[in-house]
Specification:
About 40% of the residues lie in helices and about 20% in strands. By secondary structure, the protein is an alpha+beta fold. The chain folds into 4 domains: about 210 residues, Beta-Lactamase (2-Layer Sandwich), CATH 3.30.450; about 100 residues, PAS domain (Beta-Lactamase, 2-Layer Sandwich); about 180 residues, Rossmann fold; about 150 residues, Helicase, Ruva Protein, domain 3 (Orthogonal Bundle). The strands form 7 sheets. The protein has a 6-stranded antiparallel beta sheet. A 5-stranded antiparallel beta sheet has the order 2-1-5-4-3, with helices on both faces. The chain starts with 6 loop residues before the first helix and ends in a 12-residue tail after the last helix.
């Protein structure tokens, strides 16, 4: 609808306003729809068009409001000054308000501002929202969220009808309204171009707010990126498209002995050379590379390097990110992932015998030292268990535990497995090279099991590593310092091997600082029952069984010589748990070489042994240690219990059902042994 803002329109508006404010039906169709709708909102809000209730913030709330909008005022005020330079001395106001309609800043002629304070409350802190000030340039602009010009009689409040207002909103980067800018003049001074001025200024404010927001976002992103880069556990260097250093973290500076002010903006190749003059133009991940420091006498160092290429939306290269990690940190991580961790402590060593207690005491002393340890003992005695325990209680416990079975390594690969190799060192080698077990154990313990099987030529290299605490890979030129605690073990007599010239005496003396002799199982007989019970409990748990060992089985276990030591005992118990179809391990569940002991032992040469059953209610009641015929044991138990099946079963450590089955099997008449009164 085209409106002609002339005197007649003003007269018609005055008449319509008087009818409207008195709720008199009238033809209001000539009024601009946005103005009429605003009148309706103002009336519905209860705004008194003649005596309005003003809303002005008190000093404390105004201070809070101003401080919350300082950045906005800082942006808008220069635009207000530019507008005021155009309209000054014309009885005008330049007003800034926030999104809620509160005036934040006021510019204008001094006499006009003074007049506004008393006439229309155009002061900072005053609220120009429609719900307080009715239809007006600021309130209606905020409601419509678009520029609007309101002429004299279009205002809802009578006292505002002498003014004409031109208001335009401004927005943040997300399109949310932040407030508006208003130019208020006497009605006779207004011009249609005034709205264009306000709109142009508001557009400029919106753009500047977006630029500032983007700048702050970039600053935040940059700060976050810098914080991330500085906190990374690796050295990080950011290069621009021409390989100049754009950013470098402190760890990289320390790694390469550089100073920030010397390298920033300079070519990467002025300071660092990668393996074989490699140019970082293709992506790689965690590749071990020789890194040389130019202008330095230091030898090349190995680093695990990752290279990431940064591209723009169309795939054009814009920069490069290089991440340097020290090889020993990667090796430690790989060691952990590959299970190079010790599992056992001294609490894992089961037994209560004196020989075992003496060995544990020696091993604990060894754990408090950084000296090399040599563990001697037959196969199956638990030498590796002691190695684990020593590591776990030593100063190296936080490092990896790398166990190497020297006897299992192919003869031609022993040296490469222990010391590693460079790429291309030999046919079939990994193209990137490979660290050896000593490098992987750096900061921890290497356990060289079956050390007596190491070839003589490798013993020479091993001796050099022990003496220098450095390792040189096969095909390599530069030694790598290592901090490794060595624990070696063997079931061979090394003194005999030295005499036979299959083991070097100087290596033996290097390894044999702390000697630990692990006793055989036959030397710790009192631990056999403890270990057997321990294994049964373990297999019950893992196999979902509830099996126990019968007394006659204990006797055979104690009588057996155990050439395979603890490993053999564990296998025997596991076999018995697997094959028994009852809840008790009987003699028939044992391997024949053990069960035959009953047949081969001469009963007359064996004294009748009695042992106290742990936890028995009757502490004075002995249990026969079965080194004799099973039938005789059952009869003796029935005799002692006066034929009472329950008591006899308790004495023998078996349940009543099993005892009944055995009584039936051996044809024993229980009545014979009952005491008759």
């Amino acid at each position: 609808m085209s409106i002609k803002f002339d005197e007649q329109y003003s007269i018609n508006l005055r008449t319509a306003w008087e009818k409207f404010t008195n709720n008199i039906p009238w033809d209001y169709s000539f009024i601009r729809p946005e103005i009429y709708d605003s009148w309706v909102r103002s009336r519905n809000a209860g705004v008194n068009p003649v005596e309005p209730v003003s809303s002005v913030l008190n000093s404390e709330d105004l201070n809070i409001c101003i401080n919350a909008n300082l950045d906005l005022i800082d942006v808008v005020h220069p635009y207000m000054e530019q507008l005021y330079d155009v309209v000054k001395d014309s009885g005008s106001y330049i007003l800034l308000c926030d999104k809620d309609g509160y005036l934040l800043d006021v510019l204008g002629d001094a006499d006009i501002i003074q007049q506004g304070k008393s006439h229309s409350m155009l002061v900072t802190g005053a609220n120009r929202n429609e719900s307080f000030a009715g239809t007006n340039g600021i309130g209606t602009c905020l409601y419509l969220k678009k520029p609007i010009q309101i002429w004299g009689e279009e205002h809802y409040l009578n006292q505002h009808k002498v003014y004409a207002c031109s208001s335009a909103p401004f927005f943040d980067a997300s399109g949310n309204i932040l407030g508006c800018l208003d130019i208020t003049l006497r009605q006779d001074k207004i011009h249609p171009h005034t709205l264009g001025m306000a709109t142009s200024a508001a557009d400029g404010i919106t753009k500047e707010l977006k630029i500032r927001a983007a700048y702050k976002d970039n600053q935040l992103i940059s700060a976050q990126r810098n914080s991330i880069i500085q906190s990374m556990p690796s050295g990080v260097i950011l290069l621009n498209s021409s390989y100049r250093i754009a950013q470098i973290n402190k760890l990289a500076l320390n790694m390469f002995h550089l100073k920030y002010e010397e390298v920033i903006g300079q070519s990467f190749f002025n300071f660092i050379r990668l393996d074989e003059n490699m140019i970082p133009e293709s992506e790689i991940y965690n590749k071990e590379i020789n890194v040389s420091l130019l202008n330095s006498n230091l030898p090349p160092s190995k680093f695990n390097v990752s290279i990431n290429i940064v591209t723009d939306d169309i795939g054009e290269k814009k920069g490069t990110v290089l991440i340097f990690s020290e090889s020993k940190l990667i090796h430690k991580l790989v060691s952990n992932i590959n299970g190079y961790q010790s599992k056992y402590t001294f609490d894992s060593i089961i037994g209560a015998s004196t020989p075992l207690a003496d060995t544990i005491r020696t091993a604990k002393s060894a754990s408090q030292s950084s000296s090399n340890v040599l563990i001697l003992g037959e196969s199956g005695t638990g030498k590796e268990l002691f190695a684990h325990a020593i590591h776990n209680e030593s100063a190296y416990s936080q490092g990896p535990f790398v166990a190497v079975n020297c006897a299992a390594l192919p003869r031609g690969l022993v040296e490469s497995e222990l010391f590693g190799y460079e790429k291309g060192a030999f046919t079939g080698a990994n193209k990137d090279g490979n660290p050896g077990k000593f490098e992987l154990a750096d900061g921890g313990t290497i356990f060289l099991d079956e050390i007596g099987d190491v070839p003589l030529d490798v013993q020479v290299s091993l001796l050099r590593v022990i003496q220098t605490k450095e390792v040189v890979r096969i095909g390599g030129w530069y030694p790598k310092p290592i901090n490794v605690r060595i624990i070696a073990a063997t079931n061979k007599n090394l003194n005999t091997a030295i005499e036979l010239k299959t083991f070097r005496s100087d290596l033996y003396y290097r390894l044999n600082v702390f000697t630990i002799n692990v006793p055989t199982l036959s030397e710790r007989v009192e631990d056999i029952r403890i270990l057997a019970d321990f294994f049964v409990q373990n297999f019950n748990r893992t196999k979902g069984r509830d099996v126990s060992i019968s007394p006659e089985v204990y006797s055979l276990l104690l009588a057996y010589s155990w050439p395979g030591n603890i490993r053999e005992l564990e296998n025997v118990i596991e076999r018995a748990v697997n094959i028994t179809d009852t809840d008790t391990i009987q003699i028939e569940h044992l391997p024949q070489n053990i069960s035959n002991i009953m047949l081969t032992q001469n009963r007359e040469t064996l004294p009748e042994l009695y042992t106290q059953r742990e936890g028995d209610d009757n502490q004075n009641q002995p249990i026969l240690n079965i080194n004799q015929n099973t039938r005789q044991i059952l009869i003796k138990a029935l005799e002692k219990c006066n034929g009472n099946i329950s008591d006899a079963a308790t004495m023998l450590g078996i349940n009543r059902r099993t005892l009944y089955r055995k009584i039936e099997k051996f044809g024993i008449q229980t009545d014979t042994y009952r005491t008759r009164l």
